[in-house]
Amino acid sequence: MSLKFLLKCVQFQRTFLEINKRLPSFAYSSTTAAIKSAESSDVTNFHNEKLQKYLETLREEFYKLRVQPTNDVQIHQRIGKLNKIVHNLEQYRAIKSNMVSAEDMAKEKDDDMLSLMKEENEVYSDLLKKAEAQIMIELLNFTDSDTCGSIIFEVNAGAGGQEAMLFANDLYEMYINYLENNGWDYDVLDHVTTDIGGLRNANVIINSREAFNNLRFEAGVHRVQRIPATEKAGRIHTSTVSVTVIPRPDDKEIQISEKDLKIETKRASGAGGQHVNTTDSAVRIVHLPTGLSVESQTERSQLKNREIGLKRLQAILIKRQYESTLATTQATRRAQQGNLNRNEKIRTYNFVQDRVTDHRISNGTTHNLREFLQGGEQLNEFISRIAIDHRKYVLAEVLTNWQEPKEKNSS
User: Fold this and answer.
1) Strand arrangement, sheet containing 261-266
2) Terminus of the chain with fewer CB atoms < 10 Å: N or C?
3) pLDDT band, residue 243 (cuts 50/70/90)
4) Cα 294–295–300 angle (5° rounding)?
5) Residue 81 and residue 75: Cα distance in Å, rounded?
6) At 287, is the secondary structure helix, strand, or coil?
7) What is the band of 11 on the pLDDT scale with cuts at 50, 70, 90?
8) Would you say residue 5 has pLDDT above 70?
9) Contact 37, 385 (CB under 8 A)
10) For position 335, what pLDDT does the model report?
11) Residue 183, class by beta-carbon neighbours within 10 Å (0-12 exposed, 13-18 middle, 19+ buried)?
């Protein structure tokens, strides 16, 4: 065994350890699988020539911005986003530069040395795949820049009567579990139930940018197929539940003036213990400009009910503003809810076959439905895959419309 071979082994070991230490920890999880399963266009392939030119343009922009002193918050935010892409791109290129070329291997006469070269390239190839996947994740996140600090999340029973309401409650509990699993702050504004444990509708404000990035893809009609407990003939019933996601942009908070409100108090009614019918804790708020009215009597404190009522009123006004905006562009709230017909759906929950099928993604079927409804990893995997599909679509549009900057003529 030659000294040259031993030195090469030592050099390779040091290089591998250094690169692997710098490369971000990256497991081939559901996110990685999502990228592979979301191939929608050649232009979003990592090795596509146009995508590579786009990456190089982003790299050049990053280094130019970094050396220019500025107090502009938006520029600093862009530098931060670009940094994640460029950092991984530089690591990718460093790994690639360490690979032995086919020409060098063809010239090598030492069999041991040639074997080591091949082994090196295999290791570096695995590292390149990890780096490629990480770059694509950062690029997809960078391209899809839609964001807002909080959302209004609604669950509404649709076609199917009591069965639809029972399933609406199942979905509501699934999403509440999902929120709690992710540690997101939320506030339940409305939760209208039925006597048999069903849910007519629920309205939740979720304060998290991550919530918007994930839950916006849950908007639409969810279809359930199962045999109701009251069905004696064993027939499968089909019902629907709609989910609506309304963003609350940071710069478009609706201000409600006190002079536009008519606030009435009364004694709470219904089940609720000793405080019911003993104090004027219930609150009814009327928004005079629109005629909208809301009521709240869930709390013992009149001040707390007033606070909840104002939040409900603001949520309704935001919803109206959002729907109005969509109506003047390309969609309406109906695009999310459809008309609640049984034939319209984004996802089907089939209890008889113990499966959940998302109709927007390939291979979008999973089993163990009860586990899925716990709002854990199975739901998170579906959401991740749909998010990746959406972001790849956005990236494809960006690259299709993107023009490579023309080089400036040197004077």
Assistant:
1) 261-266, 282-287, 292-296
2) C
3) very high
4) 150
5) 10
6) strand
7) low
8) no
9) yes
10) 52
11) exposed
Tokens 């108090």: give the residue: 265
Q: How far is CA 323 from CA 152, 239, 318, 393, in A?
A: 13, 25, 9, 24
Residue where the block lists tokens 């009567």:
161
Distance (Å, whole) CA 242 – CA 223: 9
Write down the pLDDT at residue 250.
61
Helices and strands, counts by H and E, the chain: 12, 11
| CA diameter of the chain | 97
Question: Which stretches of 236-277 are DSSP H helices?
Answer: none
Alpha helices by DSSP H, listed for 98-160, are 102-107, 111-143
pLDDT band at 357 (very low <50, low <70, confident <90, very high): very high
User: Please, is 381 exposed, middle or buried when counting C-beta atoms within 10 Å of its C-beta (0-12, 13-18, 19+)?
Assistant: middle
Helix axes 30-37, 377-401, angle to 10 degrees: 40
Q: How is residue 76 written in tokens?
A: 């600093």
User: What is the pLDDT confidence band of residue 266, given thresholds at 50, 70 and 90?
Assistant: confident
